[in-house]
Amino acid sequence: MVVTEDIAQDPNWERFRSLALGHNLHSCWSVPLLSHEGSVLGTFALYQNRTHTPDELQIQQLACAAQLAVIAIRHERDGQRLEESEQRFRS
């Protein structure tokens, strides 16, 4: 998990600071979305309109939301593969 408590002060946000602050985004928490094989599927990010550090419950909730996103991505990809397989079979 990557936590940016204050976008205005974080050096990693230098390139995008004005864009984020211009949209009233002041903190960001981000979790990688990883497949069961360990490959990166994407990230799940949550932005807040205030500077903030997540507490333990918020960390658990973000991890749960990220895991649900992984399940949804996997379900969608499995459905696409099944549909492609059915189309090949019917051809």
Characteristic terms for this protein:
91 residues, alpha+beta, Beta-Lactamase, 3 strands, elongated
Polypeptide structure, described:
- This protein is α+β, with helices and mostly antiparallel strands and 91 residues long.
- The chain has one domain (2-90): GAF domain (Beta-Lactamase).
- Helices cover 45% and strands 22% of the residues.
- The protein has helices spanning 17-22, 56-90; strands at residues 2-4, 27-34, 40-48.
- It has a three-stranded antiparallel sheet with strand order 1-2-3, covered by helices on one side.
- A hairpin with a 5-residue loop joins β2 (27-34) and β3.
- The longest helix is centred in the C-terminal third of the chain and has 35 residues, at 56-90.
- The radius of gyration is 18 Å and the shape is elongated.
- It starts with a strand and ends with a helix.
How confident overall, as mean pLDDT? Answer: 94
The radius of gyration computed from the alpha-carbon positions, rounded to a whole number of angstroms, is: 18 Å
Continuous helix count: 2
H/E order of the elements? EHEEH
Structural class: alpha+beta
CATH superfamily: GAF domain
Report strand %: 15-25%
- CATH architecture annotation: 2-Layer Sandwich
Low-confidence stretches: none
Strand arrangement within the widest β-sheet reads 1-2-3
**What name does CATH use for the topology?**
Beta-Lactamase
Number of beta strands: 3
